[in-house]
Amino acid sequence: MFIGRNTELKKLNEMYASNKFECAIIYGRRRVGKTTLIKEFIKDKKAIYFLAREADGGANLNGFSNDIYAVTAKELAKKAFFSDWESTFDYIYQISKDNRIILVIDEYPFLAGGYRPISSILQAHIDNQFKDSKLFLILCGSSMSFMEYQVLGYKSPLYGRRTAQFKILPFNFFESLPFYNGFDSVDKAILYGMTGGIPEYLNKINTNKSVPENIIDLFLTPSGLLFEEPSNLLKQELREPATYNSIIEAIASGASRLNEIATKCGTESNKCAKYLKSLISLGIVKKELPVTETSSKKSIYLLDDMMFRFWYRFVFTNMSGIVSDLGEAIFNYEVKEELPAYMGFVFEEICKQYMVEEAKKNNLPFLPGKIGRWWGNNPREKRQEEIDILTYRKDNALFCECKWTNAPTDMDVLTALKKKSELFSYKNKLYWMFSKTGFTDRLVAEAGKQTNVRLVRFEDMILEI
């Protein structure tokens, strides 16, 4: 069953209906569902789908020839092959001059890596032939840096040839809800927190098993799909996986500033910064500033990919035990106890996503600017303060607290949040309280008297979206 990606499908179908040359660039990290999206789009249309291999140009040309003839001249499939790429694209032009046809080149970076002139050849055919045809060309790739710099980048031969680009991101929590049928709201959040909304991982959730059983099966078993997933992804994407692994380990263990990370890894700060840039481009790491700041001096680095975050928190330090088939014991004695603390960050992310969804429906008190965390110095109390979520525009600011606890949230949390908000000079201040478990009667009564306070239960968030 195909789930989600409605916006992307709508746009692709609008482009298809134009009946003129189109070139869509589709990219995103591995396992995010790019190929699934493409196959859903082309399933009822005349389309040539070619999956490039990590091979030289000749091997890919033969595979490409076979896929072309399988659609356009089945009697020639596996029997005839094009002699070069120019004649291949000439043929594509001839069959698309008067007929709408889709050509998909999936994992384009593999093709370009095995045959470097391909982008220039493709550019020439777009400029001289394809632009006057009815061809719908789709180039897809998982190598984020390659697609952004060598396909979309200014120095690429293909620069300016695309008519649309799609960066496919993981599902947010609310988009991923259809994968969690049968689980309660708390379990849904945990499942999201361990998969990060990656469709391939979501598809592996067994709805006939409990959350603990799914965690053990996927992460804490030597044959589990996600037991070695981060290591495999790093090997596929990066040339020095051991170095990148050290950097991720450092961040996972608490190092957040560049010099701290570099020191833990035993590398120079300028080299570490380049490695971090690559990890950011892959969506594994993010660079974060207090939401009101613009100076990079206050920036910190965090793991952005939730599956990586979950893996380094619970799997990495327990690899030997997992290999020794102690997965169930590891869950009971370590994961189970630490899971609520881990979920605090996940819940903050879900709350931010909820605010974005509410903004789309004009349900926020004002049009938000950036939505994010804030941290900084309290000169009055001479201590550091943190605010889970803050968004603002002009004289309006919305301060939010997110509580993933089993106890109902009480008045003291609202009082503390208001105290922190005194550090800011916004004229209109509003307060939202997000809670996994709900709120005490005292807080509910007090919030009812104040027009600038809203209480949001986690279960209600799910029902409202």
Descriptive tags:
465 residues, alpha/beta, five-stranded mixed sheet, globular
| Number of E-type strands | 12
Low-confidence blocks of residues: none
Strand order of the largest sheet: 2-3-4-1-5
Assembly state: single chain
Shape: globular
Briefly note the structural class of the backbone: alpha/beta
* Alpha carbon gap, first and last residue: 21 Å
Major β-sheet annotation: 5 strands, parallel
Portion in helices: 40-55%
Rg over CA atoms: 25 Å
Rounded average pLDDT: 96
H/I helix tally = 20
Indicate the proportion of strand residues.
Answer: 15-25%
Summarize the structure in words.
The protein has helices at 6-17, 34-42, 57-72, 85-96, 108-114, 118-128, 144-151, 185-195, 199-202, 211-218, 229-237, 241-252, 258-265, 269-281, 306-314, 319-323, 327-360, 411-421, 441-449, 458-464; strands at 22-27, 47-51, 101-106, 135-141, 164-167, 285-288, 300-303, 371-378, 383-393, 396-403, 428-435, 453-457. Strand 10 (396-403), helix 18 (411-421) and strand 11 form a beta-alpha-beta unit. Helix 12 (241-252) packs across helix 13 and helix 13 (258-265) packs across helix 14. The longest helix is centred in the C-terminal third of the chain and has 34 residues, at 327-360. It is of the alpha/beta class. The chain is globular and about 75 Å long. It has 20 helices and twelve strands. The model has no long low-confidence stretch (mean pLDDT 96). The protein has a five-stranded parallel sheet, with helices on both faces. Strands 8-9-10-11-12 form a five-stranded mixed sheet, with helices on both faces. The protein has a two-stranded antiparallel sheet with strand order 6-7.
